[in-house]
Amino acid sequence: MNKIWLIVCTICISILTIINPTNVLPSLFNATHHAIELSFTLLASYAIWLGLFEIIKQTRIPTIMAKILSPLITLIYGKNTINKETLHYLSLSMSSNILGTGGASTALSIKTIESMAGESTKVNFAITMFVVINATGLQILPTTIITLLASMGDTNPGKIIIPSLIASTISTIIGIILVKIFVKRGNGS
Questions:
Q1: Domain that holds residue 86
Q2: Rounded to an integer, what distance in angstroms lies between the CA atom of residue 49 and that of residue 148?
Q3: CA dist 147 to 46, 59, 106, 155, 175, Å?
Q4: Cβ-based neighbours of 91, under 8 Å, separated by 6 or more
């Protein structure tokens, strides 16, 4: 990946040098400035949400959320697939993704997968389903996108909520259906 990134950057800088040589250095500095600014904006957003999730973990909210999400999790993963510890991590991870802070829930996702795997080193149905659900990213409140839009001066960053909800719901449903079809076929069951 680093080689591809280096090749793309080299080609872009070469083209800019040919087209407008006086803009090469200012463009590089400007891009670096925007990248650092974006990094700090996302860092602040993630710090807030990770802090909030840490506070939530100290309350009974995860237990309540696990109970609320339990029928949905059972429907998706099947009965007797998820133990209590996995249900706890799964509900927190799903809640984090639903709130649009998927990047902030990486640690939760790792703990969820570790709990799902147990002692096994093989990928199972539950792990496959979890990865697909995380990748499709069902979001009710896309906080990362809203933060990015607001940081770039958008006057109505909330306009992304409905389109994001529709797109992520459709992709999540299709992903769940495909995993149920192909993983069951692959396992011969």
A1: 2-187
A2: 15
A3: 10, 27, 19, 12, 27
A4: 62, 65, 66, 68, 69, 70, 73
Structurally, the chain folds into a number of domains equal to 1
Question: Alpha-carbon distance 136 to 97, whole Å?
Answer: 10
φ/ψ (deg, to 5) at 90: -65, -45
Q: Write down the H helix ranges in the chain.
A: 2-19, 24-57, 61-77, 84-98, 106-117, 125-136, 143-151, 161-187
Q: Tokens 């996995």 correspond to what residue?
A: 86
Q: pTM of the prediction? A: 0.67
On whether the CB atoms of residues 137 and 98 are closer than 8 A, the answer is no
In tens, the pLDDT along 145-158 reads: 888 888 788 889 88
- Tokens describing residue 124: 């199972």
